[in-house]
Amino acid sequence: MSLDISFIGILIGSIMASSVPLILAASGELVTERSGVLNLGVEGMMIIGAISGFALMVITDNLFIAIVGSMLSGVIISLIFGFLSQSLLTNHVATGLALTIFGIGLSAMLGKNFVGIPGKEFPILFSSLKESIPFFGPILFGHSIVLYFAFALPFLTNYFLKKTKLGLVVRAVGDSPVSASNQGINVILVRYCCILYGGAMCGLAGAYLSLIYTPQWIENMTAGRGWIALALVVFATWSPIKVLIGALIFGGITILQLHMQAIGFRIPVQFLSALPYLMTIIVLVVISRDSRKIKLNTPTSLGRIFYKEK
Amino acid sequence: MIKIEKRNDVPMALYFFTPFIAIILTILGGGIIFYILGFNPIEALKFYFITPISNLYGFSELLLKATPLCLIAIGLSFCFKSNNWNIGAEGQLTFGAIVGGGVALLFYNQEGFYILPLVIVAGAIGGMIFALIPAILKTYFNTNEILVSLMLVYVSKLLLDYLVVGPWSNPEGFNFPETRQFSDSSRMPLLFEGLRIHAGIFLALAAVMLSWFILYKTYLGFQIKVSGLSLKTAKYAGFKGKTMILVVFMISGACAGLAGVGEITGPIGQLHRMISPDYGFTAIIVAFLGRLNPFGIIFASLVVALTYLGAETAQIFLQIPKYTGQVFQGMILFFLLASDYLLFFKVKILNLKKNELRH
């Protein structure tokens, strides 16, 4: 294997592909957290998205329905979290954990008849350009539409949060629900919307795995990516652009690890596989050490229950 | 019409009664899911909750599964009571099993009364050390313990995987991913001939008694409870917050480590990849269902252990994937959290005339 320029192009392309589920889930969770809600159910919502996307693809043979359906199922499952945490004022951490456990169980139950069914090829865009342009071809072209969407999402999210009125409302609700409420903003409604949006993005992230990245259904196929996405939001100190950078770093480690295994690098496979998790811990330590820096960006009311006396 | 009022204080009777409501709702919810999947719900629920414990062997299996759940949940109750979110008990269990198992493997061809105590202590220390990582990072580097403890779960499982396929794999094992069998001196004594229930259950019961004593009879327990209710009060009272965080994590890690050692020296007898069906995560539900109360946790561990057994029975008789257990476990926690609403709010059904409403 030679390290020529076109190989590096292909490598970067595959790093981008592996970071897509992280970008989608983390961008969704970021908006949820910006509204002051900590939803630890990312893993559960992703796996539900993965099975519903795959099942709908098998049943309807229509990839569009499968993608939209996976987002809808993410919305539905996140509605459980929304109802409990917002209407019944339950603890966010415990509710999110329950959602993850429930989601993994439910996905395996629903997916029972879909194990071993081969997936369908997902259409890629500009495939001719991918081959004809060296280096830049595999980076810029020949990806699925979901990948292009994922790479645009952090910028859209950034614009939404910083430049639009609605984005300001979301941030106000996250930073100071009491004063937002006094301004006449329906805090609970805003938080509901952000939770459901997060659910849709996590559902899409799951569907990317089961329809595009490794087109098949495997039990527990999200394999902890939901948790890494959660860590990414903290890693990015709640900034969407940094989510993109972080996701690429993590995608890079995953791909590098696969290639190092392929070359026969003399480090046990398991140590390389542990790298993303260890890396998350190290990064968390580095960014959390400076408590001022992390406080500056953390949504002030994150994870706290908001209750308005009627 | 319905009127909702905030309660001033939580009625204790209701506090311990709502878990039962949650269990009943979970069973009903399970029945509905079975119905949707095309099974006779009554029959399916019978396979789930009655068949598994209708004989002595089943009852022993119930206690066998409740033992690690109870142990871990007891440990977690210290963390949760003081607002420390250790959700990586599964990793602490795994690391405890690795350290304890390592000691057991050192003595694989020896017998002696001292071996099992050594293995058990090693396991507890292993779990304790592993739990200290998120605790130290939290206290000295301000790092979120939820994410760190969770990431370490994956690290510990990969380490176990490396050890059982690599350096610790059984040299006569035809490359199966497992270690040698432990010697008889490293195994938990069985309590009854022909049943798998072992002496590890006494570890769990001891943990229950000890935790009750610490939580309700010592200054440390008082500090833990106060910090859980209000960190500001704890600071004002001059409690050493950092030390307490380290201590609760150590207790919790040691309990998880013991649970891990109990599994490998009890029913398993060696190290391999699948030493725990996510006991460490399920124990979080047990801790909540038991209301973080030592005796409540005993009861909750039996209920949740039944969901494991029921899932296995249902898999055999109804060909439902055993992951249904997790569906039930998730539902229990959902319903429990939801029913907590009744603790903090009074729901009054009013039947008054309009002008009376205005008073």
Summarize the structure.
Chain A is built from 14 helices and no strands.
Could you give the topology of this structure?
The complex is a heterodimer of chains A (310) and B (359).
Chain A: H1 5-34, H2 42-60, H3 63-87, H4 92-110, H5 127-132, H6 136-140, H7 145-163, H8 165-175, H9 177-182, H10 187-213, H11 225-235, H12 240-263, H13 269-289, H14 291-297
Chain B: E1 2-6, H1 12-36, H2 41-49, H3 56-81, H4 89-106, H5 115-141, H6 145-165, H7 200-217, H8 219-229, H9 231-236, H10 241-268, H11 279-289, H12 294-318, H13 324-339, H14 341-344, E2 345-349, H15 354-358
Antiparallel strand pairs in B: 1-2
Describe the structure.
The complex is a heterodimer of chains A (310) and B (359). By secondary structure, chain A is an all-alpha fold. Chain A has a single domain (5-297), classed as ABC transporter involved in vitamin B12 uptake, BtuC, CATH 1.10.3470. Helix content of chain A is 74%, strand content 0%. Chain A is globular. The mean pLDDT of chain A is 87. Chain B is an all-alpha fold and 359 residues long. Chain B has helices at residues 12-36, 41-49, 56-81, 89-106, 115-141, 145-165, 200-217, 219-229, 231-236, 241-268, 279-289, 294-318, 324-339, 341-344, 354-358; strands at residues 2-6, 345-349. In chain B, strands 1-2 form a two-stranded antiparallel sheet. In chain B, helix 12 (294-318) runs antiparallel to helix 13 (324-339). Chain B is globular. Mean pLDDT of chain B is 89; it is low at 355-359. Chains A and B meet through helix 4, helix 11 and helix 13 of A and helix 6, helix 11 and helix 13 of B.
